[in-house]
Every structure is written in C-alpha cells, then in structure tokens.
Design a protein that fits this description.
homodimer, 17% strand, 2 domains, Rossmann fold
Chain lengths: 422, 422
C-alpha cells in the first residue's frame, strides 16, 4: 500500500430525493484526486455493507451513470437503519470494521446520514486513537427532518419542503373549486415525528401573491380540539374552504400521538392509521363539514421530480466538500451549509466538529410558529424561502417517466475469510 | 340583440390539473371570433352560477390571465356537483336557465365535465326543441376517471396517470433502498371508484429500462387475499421489496368496499379510512412485513406541476374545438380525442353526438389487465404511454412556488328580479 488510500462511502437511515446528489459529489470529486483517493467503495445497504464486507466498486460505473446520481432519488447503494453500539458495548463490530478497512486499504470514511449516523461516524473517527487504525471519518448531512445542529439546513429537507408547499397550494386550489357544493376541508398529513419543519413548509403554500387559508398542526403544539375547530370553522366561513397540514407527530394534551385513537377492526384488533383520517373524522363530527384527506408518506421524500434547486446544490456541495476535507487531512468533521444572507440568498459550505453534531437534535425555534400555534411567522418564511427555491428537473424518457439511474453496483471480491453476522 | 350572441361556460364535477386549460381554449378561441361570440360568461360554481344568475364576465380578464389558465390546476370559476333533473321532474330549473340565457343574450352553452355533465348538457341542447329557446350546447370532456365513451381518453386523466406513474416509480426507488433493514412493502392508494384506469397507470412506473415489482389491485378484480399475499411474498423474496398500487374502489369477494373494514374508534363510532391502511395491516398480519402507505387523494388530480404534455394539449384542443363547433352551427355534440397512431403518437379532435355520450361509462377493457389480475398488459401500456408523455411545467415565482393564476372573476350585474334557490 502506497500513499493512495481507498474511500468508503455509505448511505444511512431514511433516504431522500437528493442523497444521491451527495454521493455524486463525493464520487466525482474523488475521481478528480486519484493520486490520493484510489477507489471509492460504497457500502451495500449502508454500514451493514462495511460490516459484512459487502462492498460496491463505484469505479465500475461510467461517468454518465455517476453524473445521473445527481438527479436520481433514494439511496443508490441501499441504506439501512443500524446504529453502531459504543466501543465498550460491542468491540467486535469495531474490530470487524478495522479488518474490512485494512483488507481494502480504506483510509477515508464518508457517512451520509442524520443524527444517529453522525454518532456512528464520530465513533469511526476515533478508531485512530482507540484502535490505532488510521482513518479519517467525515459525515455528510442528510435528513428530511432538518434536525441536525449547526448546519443552517439539512440536504433532503428543502426538497420535501418544496413538495409539501407545492402540493398544499395545488390541493388548496382544488378544494377551493369544490367547496360550494362538496369538500370544504382538505387535510394533508406530512412527516416529522418530533419537529414541525416539514409541516411549516405547508404554510409556504400561502403567500402575498396567493393567499390561502391554511391551519397547521405542529408536533410542538399540543392539539387543542376546540381551538382548532374554531379556527377551521372561522376560515371556512370566511373563505369557503380551509386546508389543514398536520404533522404525523401531533400529540394530544395527554402526550400521546393523536394518530393513535384506539381504532379497532371488526375483530377487535388495534389499528394504527395515520393522523389525517383522525383529524378528518373530528372535523366531520364537530363541524359537519365534508372533507378529503391525503397522506404523502414516501411520496414527499422521494419526489425528485419537484426537487428544490438549492437543496440539490447543497447536497452535491456537501458531498464534494467532504472529499476536500478528507484531502486536507481532516477527521471527525461534517460539512455544513452556512447562510450568508437571505435576500439575495447566498451560502457557503462550512465545517462543524462531529462532537458538536452527534446525538443533538435541532428543534424548530418557537419564534417560527405564530402566536396562536397554527401558522408560521415571517421569520420562518424568511428561513424556508431560499430552501425551496428553484426547480431542478430530472431528465425524462420519451415514454413520460423520469430517467432515474440504476447502477451496476458491482461487488468487490471479498478478502476476508470470516463472515460477520449483523 | 344582433347576430352576435354571448357564450356561457361552466366547469362541473371533480376538477383536474388541466380543466382550466380547456377553459383557456374556449376563451382564447372565442376572443378570436368577436363578430359571432360577444362575451364569454362563466358560471360561478358551475351550473349553479347559471341557475342563480351568478355570472362571471371573463372579458374583464387580461390576455395574460387567460393564457395563465393553461398552466393552472383546479377550476378557476368554481365547480359543483349538481345534476339537473329531467325536464318532466323539474321544469322550473329549465325555465330559469332560459330566463337567465335570454336576459344575457346567451346562445352558446359550453359545459366542461364528465358523464353526469354530459347528460345536463344534452338536456340543455334540447331546449331549442322542448322550450323554443335557441341554444347550442357543446360538451367539453373532463374527468380523471377516463370513463367517457367514444373519446380515446378524457382530458384530466393523462396528468393523474403521469403523477401516479412518476410517484410510484419514485416511492419504489425509496422502498428498494430501505428494504434491507426496514420497509419492504409500499402501498399507494389511488382514485377510481368504478374503473381501474388510474391504478393501471401505477403499472407504468415499471418498464424495460426500469423494472420494478408492482402489484396492482383493480376495482374490476375481486380482492383475493390469499393470492395477493402469495404474490407480494414472492416479489419480496425475489426483489427484496414490493410496491402495491391499490384503487380506492377495490372490493372484497362479497362485493363490499375493502376500505370499509368496520373500523371503530374508542367510542365505538364507525370510521371509514382509506383502503391503503387496510391492505397494509393485512400485509403485516399475513406476512409480517414492514410497510409504509400513502393516500394521494386530491394531490393526484391537482398536480399541475407534473402534468402530462399530451393531456394539456388535449384539454386545450377540446376547449378550442368546442367553440369552433358552435361557430359551425353544431348542437348536442362533444369534441373527442381520436387516436390516429400509437407510435408515433398522432391524434386529432373528432366529434361525438351527446346522445351517445351521456350517462354511459367506459370501463377498462379486460384485455388491459394481466391474466393473474394483478398487473397491466402490453396493450394497456400501448394505450397509456402517449397519454403520460411529455412534461408541461408551469411557471414559478422566484420564491419556489408555482405561479397559478387567480382570476378577478368580476360578477356580471344581475338582470332578473327574481332569485332562484338551488
């Protein structure tokens, strides 16, 4: 082994519309520095690929296939929900990582994920010190939940926010047309179990150009049925219709999820539905209004067809910056998005110590929620607007479907005799 | 009153992403023939606007506002669900229509809707004969259900189909990334209470370039839990994951809606949820697989941001053709889409007699459903492909939201003394 080391890249946790744009940034930048970074191996299904020595040789992918990652949603190498235990709890896992890294001459570890992944990445970054294996670990931020600290925003969030803002505007136009004789309330359930970032994006559907009556139910604000119904009633009376954006994580005043309404099927089995149908049924019961409801679920985070251009740019830039940080000899850091100004929107890539990132959740500031608890403030709008700005359309096939790349994902020949159970 | 007559245009029933493109076709074409068509009045909230003499003067809208209708979803003048009774049952309604038409010198009646609306339009077309009031009534096809006869397809359907095909592909990429340690089955509920046209569009997500394991549940095929589970299980075993597209109208073998599972809340009240959570719970129960589900609801029919270019073209063309038919002296007809060839896709506008359209539902041919009942055939693909082809993006504001027009919708001064209760 010479000066040249190989790199390991993996995707972790829930995927997004732009996590592959980060992968694209990593691989394209690494390819420009072959004198330092030999190969980029991707973990098949995240860190599990490292543990099981199931590595993908991204060098087998053509330039155009890698470029196409920029416009392809989801995790091209597979992701996983798997959190490494602490070194004390599971030394075998870390030893296995070292064995695999050593066998494949891996000196750079790029981990693309959220808070849990940042913790894993931090642990790996400490292997030089704790286990004497020289490795540089760089975390690349990714999460639709937008809950990583320090960075202004998380790649992945902007595109979900844009999808929810656009969809809320469109569905609101629909219900407005129908309200005279039919549906008067439309309820859209969005992701965000702990923080209302995505729900807040629904509020962006309404602006000075296009005012829309929208009521938002945040996980940060305990559900007050009476006050909620009064507001919906008022808006329907005034505008003829109302849209409701409800976070999956909304809780009742007793602290339980509103979605968990003790539904039972014909056989008495408990059924956990979404929260949108629960709110819809309440609207019908309390106000007697005709409703429609939707649950966007995976559609919102995979909607590359309406990705935000700034989000794609952030995702690519943080991937590219991670490689540059590695080349600059850094370890245990994460590239961040630093906002320089709102209008015009200017940003740059910054750097955060992983210790300050791992296992910390950034909540939405209370100043982003309007005083009545059902809307967003001007400050929130100022924050969100640049993140949903610009369209970055994928290419399409002649048959009308988006051209999303599937890589060859060629497996690297195993070098270790032992397998490893995860 | 001279030779010039005014026109009445109204939108009816559930709105679509492109019904305003038809309105645009009507108004722009009428404006080119001011010597014959004086003003175009739109009914506020469909036919209710005619009955209550609540007319909108589209002449007050600028050229650019009317042009913007082509890229704005929903019904710009408001729609309604209201079916005129027969002349025998409710003569007063027809007399009122004649009074309003006469007062506003209306000689052309353009009605933009589905099967029920075609019936209303037919009744209006007969007023010349039945009530001696000279009027030409032309129906403009619109329905996401794609169930009007004679026309090759219905404007509105192609865009929903594209949305469902694109979304199914995107969510399938997502679940494929997650399947190793998390979600293995993704279930998307789509519209279509009687016919599986929209569900079939989900099958388009998979093609030669991008094969995806998809199981479709059609309203035309009674739900067979055992066979469905066997297929899902097989696909998950082979591909690691599976996507399910389920029509809201799927029925059990006893004929009841599968969505109606006798759910009860904590107080014993019946809860009608969607069918997606019902199928999801069954997948969990029978196969023990982790699932996610989504209900697209209004999002699918209002998604102008991903409208199909051919659908927009069809919608505009049928609107424009309706005016040309009126100018050619026709009555009781509907412009249709005539397919001339699949590859290359070529089409023209044809003409159908309203008598052959009204109250007839076009079901999906059995030859479009694969022999196992869970997929689409090559013939179905050949039919659907041209309808979802091409992207026709709306313009966007600088803040990242689509620029959808809201008209002034200036009310025409009432001329009748009496009001009319609908």
């Amino acid at each position: 082994m010479g000066k040249t080391k190989n790199a390991f890249y993996a995707q972790s946790g829930g995927v997004t519309a732009v996590i592959n744009a980060s992968a694209c940034g990593v691989i394209e930048t690494a390819r420009q520095h072959r004198e330092h970074i030999g190969k980029v191996f991707a973990g098949r299904n995240g860190i599990i690929g490292a543990l099981s020595e199931d590595l993908i040789d991204t060098g087998k992918e053509s330039k155009s296939a890698i470029a196409a990652l920029r416009t392809t949603p989801s995790g091209a190498f597979g992701s996983c929900r798997y959190k490494l235990k602490s070194l004390e709890e599971n030394r075998a896992e870390y030893q296995r990582l070292i064995d695999v890294f050593k066998a494949h001459n891996i000196g750079y570890f790029f981990y693309n994920g959220g808070g849990d992944s940042a913790d894993t990445c931090l642990k790996v970054s400490q292997l030089s010190r704790t286990a004497g294996y020289p490795i540089q670990a760089i975390h690349i931020p990714k999460t639709v939940d937008n809950d990583l600290p320090i960075t202004d925003n998380c790649p992945g969030f902007g595109s979900v926010a844009k999808y929810i803002a656009v969809s809320t505007r469109e569905a609101s136009f629909d219900v407005a047309s129908m309200a005279k004789t039919s549906t008067k309330v439309f309820i859209l359930e969005v992701m965000g179990r702990h923080a209302g970032w995505i729900a807040a994006a629904g509020g962006m559907a309404s602006d000075e150009n296009t005012p829309i009556p929208i009521v938002i139910l945040f996980p940060e604000v305990a559900f007050d049925r009476k006050r909620f119904m009064a507001l919906v009633d008022q808006k329907v009376k005034r505008f003829g219709y109302c849209s409701v954006v409800v976070s999956e994580g909304v809780r009742s005043s007793d602290g339980g999820f509103l979605a968990d309404q003790g539904l039972r099927d014909a056989f008495g089995h408990a059924q956990l539905g979404g929260v949108a149908p629960v709110v819809a049924a309440m609207v019908k019961e309390d106000l007697g209004l005709k409703y429609h409801w939707a649950v966007a679920d995976y559609l919102q985070r995979s909607a590359r067809h309406i990705a935000s251009a700034s989000d794609v740019a952030h995702a690519y830039a943080t991937g590219a910056a991670a490689v540059e940080m590695a080349l600059a000899g850094k370890n245990a850091v994460m590239p961040t998005i630093v906002r320089l100004s709102d209008k015009p929107y200017r940003w740059k890539v910054g750097e955060a110590s992983l210790k300050r990132v791992a296992n910390k959740e950034k909540m939405m500031p209370r100043s982003f929620i309007s005083s009545d608890g059902f809307g967003i403030t001007a400050r929130c709008r100022r924050y969100l607007e640049p993140l949903i700005r610009g369209q970055d359309y994928p290419p399409y096939h002649r048959n009308g479907l988006p051209k999303y790349v599937r890589l060859k994902n060629a497996t690297v020949r195993k070098k270790l005799a032992e397998s490893f159970e995860v």
